[in-house]
Amino acid sequence: MQTDILVIGSGIAGLTYALNIAQEMPNKNITILTKTQSDETNTKYAQGGIAGVINFNEDSFAKHIEDTLIAGDGLCNPHVVEIVVKEGVDRINELIALGASFDKDPNGNYKLGKEGGHSENRILHHKDVTGKEMERTLLEAIKKRSNINLISHCFVLDIITQHHFGYLVTKSTPDIECYGVYVLNLATNKIEKITANITLLATGGNGQVYRSTTNPAIATGDGVAMVYRAKGRIENIEFIQFHPTALYEAGVRGHSFLITEAVRGDGGILRNAKGEAFMEKYDARKDLAPRDIVARAIDNEMKINGTEFVYLDCTHMNQKKFEEHFPNIYAKCLSIGVDVAKNMIPVSPAAHYSCGGVKTDEYARTSIKNLYAAGECASTGLHGANRLASNSLLEAMVFAHRAFLDTINSLNAPNPSLVFKESFPNWNAAGTTAPKEMILITQSLKELKLLMSDYVGIVRNNERLKRASRRIDLLHEETEALYHRTEVSPQLCELRNMITVSYLIIKSAELRKESRGLHYNTDYLSKQVILQNTIL
Ligand code: FAD
Ligand code: SIN
């Protein structure tokens, strides 16, 4: 299969990019691939909303920029922060023009929510299901475009570069190029190759490497692992954001239900097992301190009291307003016997967001030619050491749009790399046989999640990282051996990708000899004077 533009991922980043290209270049074919159903994305689960400076009476670009820089703890790229904050408003308005609905008050003004680290109310939201509304809007717009072909249940295995033509490609090879991808078509169970002039990687996050995460099962870091295998640059991947308040349900791991930070923005108070409001002990901003601080405070309270959760108390809040703003959370809590008017909600931190990823420049270009990256899989320089709440949907739209602007220019220029097109090698499956037992995959996955949660979680130290490093090496060795003798499956490939991403998180964490933002290492409780990104 040949396509002009290939998009891997059908979340906010992939869909925004595809739609822009389709509108601007109706004569170009765009193919979007997604590994499960088209709407099964992190985007669909976004709750709190999207940050944007809408109310210029109270708010300003300068304030949003300042809040983002403070949360990022010295590692944000200030130029990128300014780009996202300023251009983000236009991207939000474009989405509204497409039909996305954000909540308004009776006077027709947007109801703007507040979350941790924001100095003003600036979060646009659609009740507590903002991401679902944004995903719906974009998917409906995509369906109307005849030059977009969205193919679900297609698992991308690897990006094709010179390496697949037999050339030696290393980290220092100049001009590594992307020619397309190898894909496992889950409808036919065949491996196909898709060639493309331009590829956008929009594969989302990697929360699934941890035992407890707000991310759905698709979030296995495939894009980052593919780029690393292709010798592209990865940056800042040690900064994993744990959301302070995932719903605690005994026995439920893997995909935890989120209790949006907007609940604390509306007045929710964190209390420990003794019923004490504890956040004032940790930060003057109390329950609305940035996420790294709140998550560490909860972790500490759970350790002090020997509990697996703390409480989010909403019993004092106006219940009618609660049900209006958070109908999904209200219903979910009730379904497990928690009536938020009477009972406190049990919550605990869960892996939520990857601040680092595939290193890009300000037009979403990666270190690999003809390959862009946008959304959660990318590291643009916006988030630094800790993402400000509700900035990621914004970043994804801004960078998908910037990738689109750059794509128009590059498509107009001659692309000599496509001389390879005629002779693309097929996927090499020589020597592999059908998998004999799934236990080899499922048990390794359990071990991986455990070691990442216990040794590379909210609080780290050198000894734990060393242990994690030794164990990941063993898992890597065993899984590579399995991969080379077994026919590929999504389960095996996801495990392999998660091991790669975990290795990168551990390595980057070991290289960062300080505590900064989300990376908290008790062996280095101070920050270094010299700031630098960890690039692998
Ligand atoms: P995703 O939306 O995750 O899409 C990834 C796509 O890539 C999927 O289509 C997937 O199938 C595809 N894919 C992955 N690997 C492969 C492969 N190998 N082959 C083929 N396809 C592949 N951010 C905010 O700004 N505000 C919020 O309120 C907010 N709330 C959140 C709540 C929750 C519960 C979660 C989990 C996240 C939240 N976030 C929020 C973060 C935000 O939702 C995500 O960062 C963002 O949606 C990521 O979008 P994306 O387009 O990069 O990736
Ligand atoms: C939330 O609603 O609390 C999540 C917001 C985010 O991750 O930005």
Describe the structure.
This protein has 536 residues and is α/β, with parallel strands linked by helices. It has three domains: 2-47 and 129-238 and 355-423, FAD/NAD(P)-binding domain; 244-351, Flavocytochrome C3, Chain A, domain 1 (Alpha-Beta Complex); 439-524, Up-down Bundle (Methane Monooxygenase Hydroxylase, Chain G, domain 1), CATH 1.20.58.100. It has 14 helices and 16 strands. Strands 1, 2, 5, 6, 7, 8 and 15 form a seven-stranded mixed β-sheet that branches. Strands 10-13-12-11 form a four-stranded antiparallel β-sheet, covered by helices on one side. Helix 1 (12-24) links the parallel strand 1 (2-8) and strand 2 (30-33). Helix 4 crosses helix 11, helix 6 (222-229) packs across helix 14 (490-511) and helix 9 (319-325) packs across helix 10. The longest helix is centred in the last third of the chain and has 24 residues, at 462-485. Succinic acid binds next to loops.
Distance between the termini: 32 Å
Cofactors and ligands present?
flavin-adenine dinucleotide, succinic acid
* CATH-defined fold name of the largest domain: FAD/NAD(P)-binding domain
User: Spans of 5+ residues with little confidence (pLDDT < 50)?
Assistant: none
Helix content: 25-40%
Average pLDDT across residues? 94
Number of strands: 16
As a whole number of angstroms, the C-alpha radius of gyration is 22 Å
The CATH superfamily of the largest domain bears the name: FAD/NAD(P)-binding domain
Q: Which H/E pattern describes the elements?
A: EHEHEHHEHEEEEHEEHEHEHHEEEEHHHH
Q: If classified by CATH, what would the architecture of the largest domain be? A: 3-Layer(bba) Sandwich
Briefly note the structural class of the backbone.
alpha/beta
The structural domain count equals: 3
Strand content bin? 5-15%
Largest sheet: 7 strands, mixed
Outline type: globular
CATH class of the largest domain: Alpha Beta
Helix count, DSSP H or I runs of 4 or more residues: 14
